[in-house]
Design brief:
The chain is an alpha+beta fold and 423 residues long. It is built from 18 helices and 12 strands. Helix 10 crosses helix 11 (172-182) and helix 14 packs across helix 15 (274-282). It binds protoporphyrin IX containing FE.
C-alpha cells in the first residue's frame, strides 16, 4: 500500500482545527468549525498522510466506492501502529474489518436488527419507554430536576440493548458506565490518558461478557450472545470466544451512546425550536420524518474513517493509497450543494438521504433499532412533558467522532404550558 503518487496537494486544514473541534466550545458547536473547513475546500489536508472531507458527494464516494477500505489491523501494522492483545481484539470489530471477514461477522450479529425481529421487540420498547418516563416524572416530582441522560437518554437504550444481547437487567447501571467509558475507543484523536482509561473499561467489560458467554455456552437463551455462540461453533466460520465477546462489547457501546445522543439532542431541540416541537406534538405520525431531520442536522456520529486501497482522486485531489481520510458526516449533512438551507432544522423538510447512519457496506447495523427507540420515545416525551426544559448546560465527553452526552439537567416550569394547538 505504499504511495506511488505525491502526498496530497489539497489545501491545508484551518490552523488548530482538531484542537478547536475537541475544545468545549467546539463540542458544543462543531458546525461553525465544519464551515471553516468547508471554506478551505471540500478536501483539505491534515498533514502528509491524512485528509478531512466535508462534501456530501465526496463522503458518499468514500463510503460506497469499493476501493475505499476501513483502516484495519493490516493498515495499522503497515504504519507501525500495531495494537496487541485484547486491545487489538476489541478494535477488530465491525467498523474496522474489511471483506470477507466483515460480511461474516456482520451476518453473525444481524438477527435482532431485521424488520421482523424489531417488530417483535416493539412492545418491549414501548413498555421500557413508559417505565423510564415514569421514572423521569418521579424524579422531577421529588427533586424538581433530573439528569435526563441518567434517567432516560442512556438508561433506555441500555435497557433495550440488555434485552437484545442477553445482559442481565440488574447490571444496567454497570453497562451504562461501561458504554460511556468505552466510547473513546472509536475516537481518532484521543489522548493517551483517555485511551488508557477506555482500554481499562473495555478490558473489564470484555471479561464480564466472557463470563456471561461461558454461562450461555452451558445454558443457551433467546438472545444475541447465544446466537453468536451457535454461529461461532459452525465449522466454516469458527469464531474464538474472545472475538465474540469483543463484538458484544462494541455493539453494546454503539447501541447506547448513539441513541442517547439522539434523544438528548431532541430535548435541546424541543426547547430551542419550539415551533418544531409544537409541529411534532401535533403530528406524532410524522415522527420518522422528524428523526431523519434531527439526525441530519446534528448526528450522533460525526466522522467515519477510510483509506483507499490504491491511488485515487477525490474532488480532483490526488489521494495516495493508504492515506487516512476522515469523512466528516456531520459536515456532509449540511453541505449546501446537497441540502437547501442546510443549517435550518425543519421537521417538514422533504425526506432526503443524509449520511447520519453512514452508507455502503458499513451502513449502521443498528439504524432501524435507533429509529424504533426514538419513534417510541419522542412523541410520548412531548405528550407527557410538553414543558420540559434544560436546567443548566449539558456536559459532553471529549471526542470528535461521537457526540456523547455525560449529563443534561432538566426541569419543568412551575406553570404548565398551554395545550398544543394543531398547526
Ligand atoms: C442515532 C443512532 C445511531 C447513529 C447516528 C449511528 C451511526 C452510525 C454510523 C455513521 C455508522 C457507520 C460508520 C462507518 O461507516 O465507519 C455506524 C455503524 C455501526 N453502528 Fe450505528 N448508529 C446509531 C445507532 C446504532 C445502534 C442502536 C446500534 C446497535 C444496536 C449501532 C451499531 C452499529 C454497528 C455495529 C456499526 C458498524 C457496522 C459495520 O461496520 O458494518 N448503531 N453507525
Amino acid at each position: 500500500m505504499d504511495t506511488a503518487i505525491a502526498p496530497s496537494a489539497a489545501p491545508l486544514a484551518p490552523r488548530g482545527i482538531i484542537r478547536r473541534l475537541q475544545s468545549r466550545k467546539g463540542r458544543e458547536d462543531p458546525f461553525s468549525l465544519f464551515e471553516e473547513i468547508r471554506s478551505a475546500g471540500p478536501v483539505v489536508s491534515l498533514g502528509p498522510h491524512a485528509l478531512l472531507v466535508t462534501g456530501y458527494t465526496e463522503c458518499l464516494q468514500i463510503l460506497t466506492d469499493r476501493i475505499w477500505h476501513v483502516p484495519d489491523s493490516t493498515w495499522r501494522a503497515a504504519r507501525g501502529l500495531t495494537t496487541e492483545g485484547l486491545r487489538a481484539t476489541i478494535l477488530d470489530t465491525l467498523p474496522r474489518l474489511n471483506p470477507p471477514r466483515h460480511g461474516q461477522m456482520r451476518r453473525m450479529q444481524s438477527g435482532p436488527f431485521t424488520p421482523a425481529a424489531l417488530e417483535r421487540l416493539r412492545p418491549t420498547v414501548r413498555t421500557l419507554v413508559r417505565t423510564h418516563l415514569d421514572r423521569l416524572e418521579a424524579e422531577l416530582n421529588e427533586h424538581g430536576r433530573a439528569d435526563f441522560i441518567d434517567t432516560v437518554a442512556r438508561a433506555l437504550p441500555v435497557a433495550v440493548m440488555c434485552k437484545i444481547l442477553g445482559l442481565p437487567a440488574e447490571d444496567r447501571a454497570l453497562i451504562a458506565r461501561y458504554s460511556l467509558e468505552t466510547a473513546v475507543l472509536t475516537e481518532p484523536f484521543a489522548d493517551p490518558a483517555q485511551t488508557a482509561a477506555a482500554d481499562a473499561a473495555a478490558a473489564e467489560f470484555h471479561a464480564y461478557v466472557m463470563a456471561l458467554l461461558d454461562q450461555r455456552a452451558r445454558t443457551p437463551a433467546a438472545d444475541l450472545m447465544s446466537q453468536c455462540l451457535s454461529h461461532g461453533h459452525s465449522s466454516t466460520e469458527r469464531v474464538p470466544r474472545e472475538e465474540l465477546a469483543a463484538h458484544i462489547v462494541f455493539l453494546a457501546g454503539a447501541g447506547v451512546e448513539t441513541t442517547s445522543s439522539l434523544v438528548a439532542t431532541a430535548v435541546q431541540v424541543f426547547e430551542n425550536h419550539p415551533d418544531q416541537a409544537l409541529w411534532l406534538a401535533a403530528h406524532p405520525e410524522s415522527v420518522h420524518q422528524a428523526i431523519e431531520e434531527l439526525t441530519r442536522w446534528d448526528p450522533s456520529v460525526q466522522n467515519a474513517v477510510r483509506v483507499p486501497a490504491q491511488d485515487t482522486t477525490l474532488a480532483g485531489t490526488p489521494v495516495p493509497a493508504g492515506t487516512l481520510v476522515h469523512a466528516l458526516l456531520a459536515a456532509a449533512n449540511r453541505d449546501p450543494a446537497h441540502f437547501p438551507d442546510p443549517h435550518t432544522l425543519d421537521f417538514r423538510r422533504p425526506p432526503q438521504r443524509s449520511l447520519a447512519f453512514g452508507a455502503g457496506t458499513h451502513y449502521c447495523l443498528g439504524a432501524p433499532l435507533a429509529r424504533l427507540n426514538a419513534a417510541e420515545l419522542l412523541p410520548e416525551l412531548l405528550r407527557r412533558f410538553p414543558g420540559l426544559r434544560t436546567a443548566g448546560p449539558a456536559t459532553r465527553a471529549p471526542g470528535l467522532n461521537l457526540r456523547t452526552f455525560v449529563t443534561l439537567p432538566v426541569t419543568l416550569p412551575v406553570t404548565r404550558p398551554q395545550p398544543v394547538v394543531a398547526l
